[in-house]
Structures are given as structure tokens and as C-alpha cells.
Write a structure and sequence with these properties.
By secondary structure, the chain is of the alpha/beta class. The radius of gyration is 17 Å and the shape is globular. The chain has a single domain, classed as NAD(P)-binding Rossmann-like Domain (Rossmann fold, 3-Layer(aba) Sandwich), CATH 3.40.50.
């Protein structure tokens, strides 16, 4: 792999496992120093950082609740304190629990919305001045295919992920003058491990089909994130790029 991100620093939220871990590893292999963020999964986050260091990369773990403005600011401050700058932010932290609409009370609605959408806003707000100082940067929001197709029992998740599309387009316009690109990478049917606390396997995965005849891997999502963070993607901004094996052809 090319070291095209040599000297860059990346903050990856929700990087303890699955897609977030794959993204952190790929960015590290390309030369970036990584801040591995999770809210409570200290052991898994530490394992991600160890995997990076075992490959010769540099990584630290910073546990933070991205729904807390002070914690988001602290995440950015830790990145700068340890590595001197911030060039890349990947907003991957999410809650994807399923429930019938009648069972989604306001607390459940806010818990999902706050992590997926508020968290992305707060982290982008926290890293923005540091990217300005660095002379540019990249923000990647990890979306969800169901926000574009619809799905049952996911009204709060779909609304939050759809909101990321709007956030992506708004930030792309506002931050372009600072040399900051903002895009969404939208995974489709990806083969990940999801425990009960993470919402389990989405019900629509049992009925949805891909054109290529298989589910994707976290590494295939990470490959697109890596490309968008690299020098060849500086003319790409405001886009939602789908990684779904043809399950949705947009």
C-alpha cells in the first residue's frame, strides 16, 4: 500500500470493531497516525490500536461520548496534543437498533439521533479549526443504505443517517474554501459482527439481495474511505458514495 497519508493524523469515531476498525487500519497502513475513538468499548478500542502498532503504525485510544460537546472538543484536543494536528475525521459512531415505530419513544429517538447526527456535527465542529490550521483536510461521514431505500423498524436510524446526507452537503459547501472535502460513504449489506447491545443483525439483511451475490466486507468500505482521504480525491466533495454490491444502484 502507498504511504500517501504519511504525516497526516486521523480521528476515527466508533473504531473499536468492524467498519471503524478496518478504516483505522487502512488509514494507518497509508501512513496516517490514528486516534481510535470509542465511547465505552475500551478493550476493543485498545485491540484496534494494538493491531495498528503491531503493523508499525502509531495509534492512541481516546474514549469519549461524541454526543457531548465538551467530550468532542476533548477528542480533538487529545489528537492535537499527541500528534500535533488533525487532517482527517471519520464519523463512524452509530447506534442501529431496530424497533417498531410505536415503540420508539422520544428517548430512543434522541439516543440514536444524538450519536449518529449530533455526534458527527459536534466532531466536525471540534476538528474544524485544527484542519484550518493544517491548511485543509477530509471529513467522511459513514451513512447507511436504508436511509436511501427505506426499511421497516428503523425510523430513527433512517432519519439520522438521512440527516448525514444533508450535513455532508452543507459542510462541503461551507468548508470548501478552507481546502476541506466532505463526503459520505454509504455501506450497504456488510458482513459485520453485531451483538445484541449493538442492535443485532438488521432484519432487512435477510431479505435484501446484492447484484454481486454476496455481502461486502468492512475492508471494502475502508478502501473507499482511504481513497477519499488521499491526494487523488481532492476534487470530490459533497458526494454520497455507495458501497453495496449493487443492492442499490443510485
Amino acid at each position: 500500500m502507498s504511504r500517501e497519508l504519511e504525516g497526516k493524523v486521523a480521528v476515527v469515531t466508533g473504531a473499536a470493531r468492524n467498519i471503524g476498525r478496518a478504516i483505522a487500519l487502512d488509514l494507518s497502513r497509508a501512513g496516517a497516525k490514528i486516534v481510535v475513538n470509542a465511547m465505552t468499548s475500551a478493550e476493543s478500542a485498545s485491540e484496534t490500536a494494538k493491531l495498528i502498532r503491531d503493523e508499525g503504525g502509531e495509534a492512541i485510544v481516546h474514549l469519549a461520548d461524541v454526543t457531548d460537546p465538551a467530550a468532542a472538543d476533548g477528542l480533538a484536543a487529545t489528537a492535537v496534543e499527541h500528534f500535533g494536528r488533525i487532517d482527517i475525521l471519520v464519523n463512524n459512531a452509530a447506534i442501529r437498533k431496530e424497533a417498531a415505530f410505536a415503540d420508539v419513544d422520544y428517548a430512543a429517538w434522541r439516543s440514536v439521533m444524538s450519536v449518529i447526527l449530533d455526534g458527527a456535527f459536534l466532531c466536525a465542529h471540534a476538528v474544524y479549526p485544527h484542519m484550518q490550521k493544517a491548511g485543509g483536510g477530509t471529513i467522511i461521514n459513514i451513512g447507511g443504505m436504508s436511509a436511501h431505500t427505506g426499511a421497516a423498524r428503523r425510523v430513527h436510524v433512517i432519519a439520522a443517517k438521512a440527516g448525514l446526507t444533508g450535513l455532508t452537503r452543507g459542510l462541503a459547501n461551507d468548508l470548501a474554501a478552507d481546502g476541506i472535502t466532505v463526503n459520505a460513504v454509504v455501506p450497504g449489506l456488510i458482513d459485520t459482527v453485531r451483538g445484541v447491545s449493538a442492535g443485532g443483525t438488521p432484519a432487512h439483511h435477510s431479505s435484501a439481495r446484492t447484484a454481486v451475490g454476496r455481502f461486502g466486507t468492512p475492508e471494502e468500505v475502508a478502501a473507499m474511505v482511504l481513497f477519499l482521504c488521499g491526494p487523488s480525491a481532492r476534487y470530490i466533495t459533497g458526494q454520497s458514495i455507495h458501497i453495496n454490491g449493487g443492492a442499490l444502484m443510485a
